[in-house]
Amino acid sequence: MSPRNDRRIDDSYAEPSLPRRAAPTGAGPRHVPRLRSLSRYLTIPAALFATILASAPCAGAVTVQQVEQGIRAYMNRKFKCTDLKVQAVPYDDQSLLQQGRLRTIVVTVKKADKEGIIMNDLYLKATDVTVSLDALFKLGKLRTRSRKSTVIRAMIKEGELNKAFARAKIPIQQFTLKFENGRVIATGVYKFIFGNRLKMIARLVPKRDGVHFVAEQAWINGLPLPVGQVRALLAKMNPLINFADIPFSPMVTKIVIQKDTLTISGESSTTTVLVILRSPTRQSR
Questions:
Q1: 3-state DSSP assignment of residue 177
Q2: Which of 74, 84, 102, 201 has a beta carbon 3.0–4.6 Å from 142's, enabling a disulfide?
Q3: Domain spans, the chain
């Protein structure tokens, strides 16, 4: 039989090809088309997972740039930041960096807005500081394991502070603070039995969670009011300035008011803190 006839015979017995998109019959794998359709829905989660992996440090070694990037991401989540800069300086021993320990970390922000409380020219510096790398890269949290010292400075304008109170949901309406002659004078509207015009002379007390407002004298429509009633009311508003999300665990121990400037400072065996809150300069008439 000639080769041409062989080919003709083979062609005559060739099985017809199935349509390209025909569903399989018989005992074919029915799950294949289902998996193909599911792959479309797995595309977006896979892309998100790839983004997370790209931002996370490699398993081999953590770099200073990755630590700085993680701190910037944390600050931008907790605050509305303008002109945010982070600089981390490692020790010569690179094994310390893999443990999250650095010589210094400096964070500066032109404006850091936390729920309307705007800290201008915020400056943070931690020395001999150890942060949790797992919390930073896996949870997006900045947890300080230890630090030798922490310094913080900031300025809060009186007008911006009062704008934040005007937007906040607090029990005293039209609540306004004024720095005057080394004191804090607060006024507002709150309905008591015999009036609603509230005026207080108060002091700002530093605590671990922030700055608290404590009334020393209070009046309603010019009549003295028991301070105990006012303090119970203010307990719902404190801390007036919250430091819970500020990194490196600063501790404030001292507050001094001079003219239009409120200076907050603190020192401990592991932390040094300095915060300045300044009201706008009043124009002379």
A1: strand
A2: 74
A3: 59-155, 158-278
